[in-house]
Amino acid sequence: MIRYAYKASLIGAAHSFELTDQGLSWRFTGRAGLWPYADIAAIRLSYRPVSMQARRFRADIANRDGRRLRILSTSWQTATLMAPQSEAYRAFIVALHARLAAEGSTARLTGGLGRTAYVAALAAVTLFAVAMAGLLVRALVIGEWAGVSFLIGFAALFAWQVGGFIARNKPRTYNFTDLPAALLP
Fold first, then answer.
1. DSSP codes of every residue in 62-88
2. What is the rounded CA–CA span in Å between residue 146 and residue 148?
3. Do 106 and 123 lie in a common domain?
4. Are residues 105 and 46 in the same domain?
5. Residues 6 or more apart from 160 whose CB is under 8 A from it?
6. Spatial contact of 40 and 34, defined as CB atoms under 8 Å apart
7. How many CB atoms lie within 10 A of CB 155?
8. How confident is the model at residue 54 (pLDDT cuts 50, 70, 90)?
9. Which structural domain, as residue segments, surrounds residue 33?
10. Which end of the chain has fewer CB within 10 Å, C or N?
11. Least confident interval from 4-8, 81-85, 109-113, 157-161
């Protein structure tokens, strides 16, 4: 049996998951269940950083009857500390895919953001880039060198942070044997 647990919030019990011979067993907030592998309809892997944990990954698992489970790669430890659980999360997600493949699953495997959300994010980034370019040109024309330096530094930081999020979360489909490396720790 392979187990994985994380605390989704500071207050409350841990969310615990286990891969059994019968299926995916889960337990949290006073509820528990077992989903046979054949009942798992979809898995979406994504990269979801937050302010306190820049390397946070998420798996959304959907059941055939519409219920959903969310598995995160980080766990709350204190009011100011979110701990990464990269190795355990990766091992659990890889093992889940292997179990589904062994069962002959037809689950839909997708990665990244949904297409609509991705297009909206690209549009927002493009709009921001155009605005920043306009400010940069204006600062160059009037000779405001401190402003130019600030804008270049800010653009580099923005490209590093947001560019990484956009690149990792590009919508994609994958198969059981070729999980997207960018969406796993």
1. EETTS-EEEEESEEEEETTEEEE-HHH
2. 5
3. no
4. yes
5. none
6. no
7. 16
8. confident
9. 2-111
10. N
11. 81-85
